[in-house]
Specification:
- It is a single chain.
- The protein is α+β, with helices and mostly antiparallel strands.
- The protein has a domain at 777-964.
- It is built from 34 helices and 25 strands.
- Helix 20 (597-619) runs parallel beside helix 21 (635-647), helix 22 crosses helix 24 (757-776) and helix 25 (786-798) runs parallel beside helix 32 (906-918).
């Protein structure tokens, strides 16, 4: 690994040179579709798995020499046509050109691009031999070992294994560990298990289906029930009637106003549910979109009295409620037809029988009675009475899951008697993943997927959010049955067999899998390369979210892997995440160095990541390489990660950005997760004494170097063929920023105080926004006040009203605005969780006509009075203008503007022009602005709306910087 010509230096690696990130980014986009995702993703729900192409790039580039060309690397990654005769230029250009014409092509992806997806392609023996020969050039004639200390869903070690490299993987969480056990141990060592797993799964399913049949009664000849519309009911405190709780009564929606609905109708002593087919010609006095629950308050369908949210929650917590079965979807037994109906007495009797049978069964009545712990993700569910793990399920769901568990226990001794120990464990592990997948669609936290009239994935939004109405699945039939979880093309068996195909050609796989705390894991031998996708601050609470699976895995496999499943729940104390629920206000008051629970949580996260990287440092050979994935948007998370690397003595030697063109993870849009993947590459020095003497750098000197690096990267990406989001452009500049910062670390200010990486990232954000302003806005923001500037830039950068609070705060600091200080006074934004919501004129301006009418009563104060003659901020004057235009018309507005001389106010007109550019086309304020400038008021203000659109923005010649504002 040392340079032969100069033994004191390291041989440069491909990851430390230019990489074909555009082509790899396109491959990641192709894999983002559920139809094209790697099959191992469907074995078990897990979070934050990286695409195959990105994982391959990180692994191969970290072990190949720098003299490998980009075309060679892409060929090794299985990207591009296999024959050079199809290429008139380089592979990257070929892939980019194919991407440009993809949307207009009617061909399958593989046909359009001329090659199969990389995830489906494993190198041939001749290619593998060539790759191994090139790799051995770097690593003293040996194949380097690739280690992933936080393996998660297993993509990184799986791809290293597919290339025949020695692999070491570790995962603390037992749910993720089981995924890795299946794909890294059983798939290469046991091979195909198709016949064996199917044999025992079918035996389990047949037995359970017979036992559960009476709990899912058939109503219509030739059809069987598959999905149920479920809700809750409480007793109305006013009239004593049953009050069904649901915020809507749609079961399935075909269009915005048509579909299938369930209508609750009060009778003297009970509620009847009626099925309605809603069509354009329907004349029902009923709107399925109007449920009994609005903002948590419930209106009685009998007397109309509203029960407030706190009282409703209290009744749910105390168990003073009933589960309602409102509607049923049935499927044809020997055909493709489906029908909807209201619930019947037989349905209600079946549910009552499930309740009775659970109470009379010792095993079912004590099943999962352990408490759900307090946590970041469990707090909402607990506030609605979900306090034990059995509470995640209705009685019938719990009975069904328990019956599958009993059937598994009955066949388990037969399996153990028939197979070797390793094959027994493999079969039992895969059999466990089938009901585990079933849990995702068979819980009272499963929303109803309205386009399909079926239960949606419980974890679709990565939390345990309460559902007023939910979909219940019949686990013995339909698309989400036990049989489908086994046999479908995304089922457990097909997924496993695909992985077997991926690794079947690897002779004598060298793989070690650990289930330990990465902070203390000491490998038997030091490794050459570490590739890691670490947890990112508070992005995902892995242990909290996976507990609902773990409690079942433990019941199934506790005796098979007693050490792995020794704890009641997953390990929250050792997990490296920023979880504020671990701390109380007393913890804050007892520590004078912090002011909030978040500070304590971040400090804990940073300390754990530092320890993980420090132990990784110890497990690396001298000169070894560490490549880190990073995709978080929050600068605090970047700050913590970078400090963890610095504290661990690593040196950042290169950064690369693999960028998606559009946001792909629906559940994460607007949250802390970015769509760019940054690869940070670090090396362990040959001589650790290199770290002993470090001369501090002055922030004033480093600042300009950081600004230049960030702006150069942003300009490069904006000039590229990729259609980047502006937030991705900012994130992409963080890589070179951190490299500059770590090269100059330690950094101190003029008072000799240590400067953290966060300061550098703030500077990079400001510098990139300046580039965006210069390129995107036709009008300078000179002379515009800081608040109005921040408002414009927020829309420019994010293009939507809901943006991450931390991002908005950092953007504000860059232009001299503390968003917290101006919140109450201006009401220009509100907060929902970690999201900041930008507000328009309708929220901020008191209605002019109401003021004229002398209305005194108002629910809240409005910061902007349109009768004022002057305004503190340009955005206030604009919002007041829009209100006047809406309420009084254009003629009045002309006089109103003229009276205040706003047509001569440069800040006012410049802010209007920039708002027209940055507000989305469907934004209400933008539509009013267009109307305002389309008539005589536009002539008065002398503003031409023609060029002021997102699609036609001329670049400004009059440059300015954010530091001028």
């Amino acid at each position: 690994m040392t340079n032969k010509e100069n033994p004191e230096t390291l041989t440069p690696l491909k990851v430390e040179d230019e990489l074909p990130v555009k082509a790899v980014g396109i491959e990641c986009l192709k894999e983002s579709n559920p139809e094209t995702m790697s099959p191992h993703r469907y074995l078990q729900k897990w979070w934050a798995r990286r695409p195959t192409a990105a994982a391959r790039l990180a692994v191969l580039a970290s072990v190949l020499p720098s003299d490998v060309t980009n075309d060679e690397l892409l060929q090794y990654l299985q990207i591009g046509p296999r024959s050079s005769e199809h290429l008139s230029k380089g592979i990257s250009d070929y892939v980019i050109e194919k991407r440009a014409t993809q949307s207009s092509s009617s061909k399958r992806l593989s046909e359009h691009y001329g090659y199969e997806l990389p995830l489906k392609s494993t190198p041939k023996d001749s290619e593998l031999e060539e790759i191994h020969n090139r790799v051995r050039e770097v690593w003293d004639g040996e194949l380097p070992t690739v280690f992933d200390p936080t393996a998660g869903g297993g993509t990184i070690p799986l791809e290293a294994l597919r290339y025949g490299l020695p692999v070491r993987a570790n995962e603390l969480n037992p749910v993720a560990w089981l995924i890795n056990k299946v794909i890294l141990d059983f798939a290469p060592n046991e091979g195909s298990l198709e016949d064996d797993v199917r044999k025992w799964a079918n035996k389990i399913d047949l037995r359970v289906s017979e036992e559960l049949a009476e709990y899912y009664p058939r109503e219509r000849e030739g059809y069987e029930p598959t999905y149920y519309f479920r809700a809750y009911s409480i007793e109305c405190p006013s009239c004593g009637y049953r009050l069904p709780l649901s915020n809507r009564w749609w079961f399935k929606k075909d269009t915005g106003s048509t579909g299938h609905a369930i209508k609750p109708t009060p009778h003297e002593d009970h509620i009847e549910y009626e099925y309605l087919k809603i069509e354009p010609s329907s004349n029902y006095d009923f709107d399925p979109s109007d449920g009994t629950v609005q903002s948590g308050d419930a209106e009685c369908i009998n007397c109309g009295v509203v029960t407030e949210s706190n009282d409703v929650k209290s009744r749910l917590r105390d168990g003073n409620f009933e589960f309602e079965v409102c509607g049923v979807k049935e499927i044809e037994i020997s055909g493709n037809d489906s029908k909807y109906r209201a619930s019947t007495k037989a349905d209600r009797d079946a549910i009552a029988k499930a309740v009775s049978d659970i109470e009379s069964s010792l095993s079912l009545s004590t099943l999962l009675t352990s408490d759900v712990p307090d946590g970041n993700k469990t707090s909402e569910a607990k506030s609605y009475g979900i306090t034990q793990w059995r509470d995640f399920f209705t009685p019938r769901q719990l009975l069904a899951h328990g019956t599958y568990l009993q059937a598994f226990e009955e066949v388990k001794p037969e399996i153990e008697a028939e197979y070797s120990d390793s094959r027994t464990k493999a079969i039992l592990s895969i059999l466990t993943l089938i009901p585990s997948k079933l849990i995702s669609r068979t819980s009272r936290l499963c929303p109803i997927n309205l386009p399909y009239g079926a239960p949606e994935n419980m974890m679709g939004t990565n939390n345990y959010s309460f559902k007023w109405q939910f979909g219940e699945n019949n686990p013995t039939v339909g698309n989400y049955s036990y049989e489908r979880m086994l046999e479908s093309r995304r089922g457990v068996l097909a997924s496993y067999e695909h992985v077997v195909d991926f690794v079947s050609d690897i002779d004598n796989p060298d793989i070690e899998l650990h289930q330990k705390d990465a902070r203390t894991l000491e490998l038997d031998e030091k490794v050459e390369a570490v590739v890691i996708d670490p947890p990112y601050g508070d992005n995902v609470m892995y242990s909290e979210l996976s507990d609902v699976f773990y409690v079942w895995h433990r019941l199934y496999l506790g005796e098979v892997y007693p050490q792995v499943y020794s704890q009641t729940l997953t390990d929250k104390q050792a997990e490296a995440v920023e979880n504020i629920s671990r701390y109380s206000d007393d913890d804050v008051s007892s520590d004078s160095s912090v002011t909030s629970r978040r500070e304590l949580a971040r400090r804990d996260y940073e300390e754990k990541m530092s320890n993980i990287f420090s132990q990784t440092y110890k497990n690396l050979k001298d000169g070894g390489v560490l490549t880190v994935y990073f995709t978080d948007k929050e600068s605090d998370a970047w700050d913590s990660l970078t400090m963890s690397l610095i504290n661990s003595k690593f040196t950042i030697t290169a950064t690369h950005t693999i960028t998606s063109e559009v946001p792909n993870r629906v559940a994460m849009q607007g949250s802390a997760s970015a769509d760019s993947t940054l690869l940070l590459t670090c090396r362990k020095p040959i001589d650790s004494r290199q770290h002993e003497e470090q001369v501090a750098s002055l922030w004033s000197d480093v600042r300009e170097e950081i600004r230049t690096a960030a702006q150069d990267k942003a300009t490069e990406l904006l000039n590229s063929e990729l259609n980047l989001t502006k937030t991705d452009t900012i994130i992409s500049a963080f890589g070179p920023t951190l490299r500059v910062f770590t090269e100059n670390y330690p950094v101190v200010d003029k008072h000799d105080n240590t400067v953290r990486p966060k300061k550098a990232l703030e500077e990079a954000r400001t510098a990139v926004v300046e580039v965006l302003v210069n390129r995107e806005l036709v009008e300078s923001l000179d002379n515009v006040d800081s608040l109005s500037t921040w408002y414009v830039l927020s829309w420019l950068v994010y293009g939507r009203e809901s943006i991450p609070y931390d991002d908005a705060r950092q953007l504000g600091l860059g232009v001299g605005v503390d968003v917290d200080d101006i919140k109450t006074e201006t009401k220009i934004w509100s907060k929902s969780g970690a999201t900041l919501i930008l507000k328009g004129q309708s929220y901020r301006v008191r209605d002019y006509t109401a003021l004229e009418a002398g209305e005194k009563r108002r629910k809240r104060a409005y910061p902007v009075d349109p009768r004022d003659k002057s305004f503190n901020y340009a955005i206030d004057a604009i919002h007041a203008t829009l209100n006047v235009m809406t309420t009084k018309g254009s003629d009045f507005t002309w006089n109103w503007l003229n009276d205040r001389g706003l047509q001569d106010n440069v800040a006012f007109t410049r802010t209007i022009k920039t708002l027209l550019q940055v507000l989305p086309e469907n934004n209400e304020d933008r539509e009013i602005l267009v109307n305002l400038l389309s008539g005589e008021t536009g002539d008065l203000l002398d503003i031409d709306i023609g060029p002021l659109t997102h699609q036609n923005s001329n670049k400004r010649d009059n440059k300015t910087t954010l530091t001028d504002f």
